[in-house]
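not sure who needs this but someone in the group chat was asking about long-chain-fatty-acid--CoA ligase from Esox lucius so here u go. i didnt clean anything up, its just raw.
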Amino acid sequence: MRFKENIDSVVFWPVYLLMWLYTLITFIPWYFLTGAGKKKTMAKREKARSTTGKAEGPYRSVEHFDDLAREDFEGKDTLDKLFDHAVHRFGKADCLGTREVLKEENETQPSGKVFKKLILGEYRWLSYEEVDQIINHLGSGLAALGQQPKRTIAIFCETRAEWMITAQACFRRNFPLVTLYATLGEEAVAYGLNECGASHLITSTELLETKLKVGHIICVDNKTLIKTGYPEGIQIHSMNAVQELGAKPDNLCAPWKRPQPTDLAVVMYTSGSTGRPKGVMIVHSNLIAGMTGQCERIPGLGSKDTYIGYLPLAHVLEMTAEISCMTYGCRIGYSSPQTLSDQSTKIKKGSKGDCSVLRPTLMAAVPVKALLGGNIRMMLSGGAPLSPATQRFMNICFCCPVGQGYGLTETCGAGTITEVADYSTGRVGAPLICCEIKLRDWVEGGYTSQDQPHPRGEIMIGGPSVTMGYYQSEHLNDDFWVDEQGQRWFCTGDVGEIHPDGCLQIVDRKKDLVKLQAGEYVSLGKVESALKNCTLIDNICAYANSDQNYVISFVVPNQKQLTSLASKNGINVSWEEICNHPAMEKEVLKAIKDLASSIKLQRFEIPVKVHLSPEPWTPETGLVTDAFKLKRKELKNHFQTDIERMYGGK
């Protein structure tokens, strides 16, 4: 036997030598040409550290450790100056693009439902200089209609070029822009309009409501306007008509004052997870600082980039992303979730979706690379943190970095963003250069700066990107505070963990803590985050009553996985019937318990009953926010009958 082993080694050693040489010859050039060594060093280096040496922080980026960044371009301290700077640098280059609608068709499905399908042409572009002129005319026209500086003006409109043009006109004329979005709900939109007291509203014919109480309504599209049926005193205008009014010499030449850095730029209404919408007050200097931090994390941002805009512009993530792109000379092509890819719901079969035509290099959120034109070099995911498995899958499949960001409307979207070279998963990166992060002990929840192996606590974000509080709602401003140096801070309510390299991981949500009847504390967010890794689950809401001693859950199952499991159990019925089948509830509950045990959730944290929801939870259903965070109050109301059944033992 030993003789045979010796013979094998003699015979095969040349093969081993050739394999070793091949590996050496191919690996070394790859290692140096791709910069793999440098990237690995960058990924492992310290990215942020405590300014005090204490475990709780504050933590700052090592790239701007001595102070916090406030502006990207010296002296460009307001949004209008920033755009003027871009026009000067990129004047005749493409700025904003919209696809031409060639044809609309109604397509009847076998079910009898009728869907509108579009055949779209190429993108038509406005240059920076052309956008600049439109902005001048629109701002002048709004002033001619009675809009006053420092008086709010509202926009309730889909993501499109006219939205950004309106915003820039308002920034230039010092008209604070109130942003509202459709999925807030009719009552919330009316509440926001009433609270801000705007006399002018920019909207589209699709979103136009006769109940809206404002003096002037300006429609962004060129469709025929029906001007009847509105309350007396409301005037309806097209955006083109307002621009024509503003282009008249007397109006265009009328004197006006530009904003100061401390002037209000935006009142951004956000639904949050409970209660009435809150208007976050954002001044020019807040946005300038926040975008300075965000742009530093996007290497090579410039005029060779193309950004696809399709997320709601009424959200801070999309608005700051687009303004940042314009600042650096990127062109922005507009899209929508219904026209994004070749397979999108409004794209006629056989015709091209927006990504295939535009071929963007940058985008926010995370669809699929082949459907996105093939040129994507970086994606940024905001909203809820990605699970490690999901992020790893995306990094591999999309052949580009998929970064995660963490921030809030209250911090201008600024907080953290992972670096391109950082391929770790489950984390949201180090603090941006415009802000710093501190952890506050939350003893009741079991999180302190002395926790091992890493300090943990409630995340507080401080710096020039922290906004000024809630509009006309001083009683809601307890989460904002100012330190001895005059720096503003915001207490996020999220619980984080700081890793040795200074990167942040979101581990819990403070407001999700419930005390059970027996005295145990359950973090619903922690339970949900853990159980989302179950292959049978697409979304989950854990629920607990303080007068009960166990947790229950509502689950949106993964249709493919659960249907396959049902078939194996001999259950071949409709999707709704599968979700309502007791045997399938037991299967999902078993999977939950198996996963919970493997990751060592406490016994009292594991849901003991489950209800399966056949319908996905989307912003349109009102059960999640536009960032897809759970609306617990709405979910409780929606599933009240099931809660009573599961807690009543029926």
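also The chain has four domains: 2-34, 48-67+381-510, 79-376, 516-648. if thats useful
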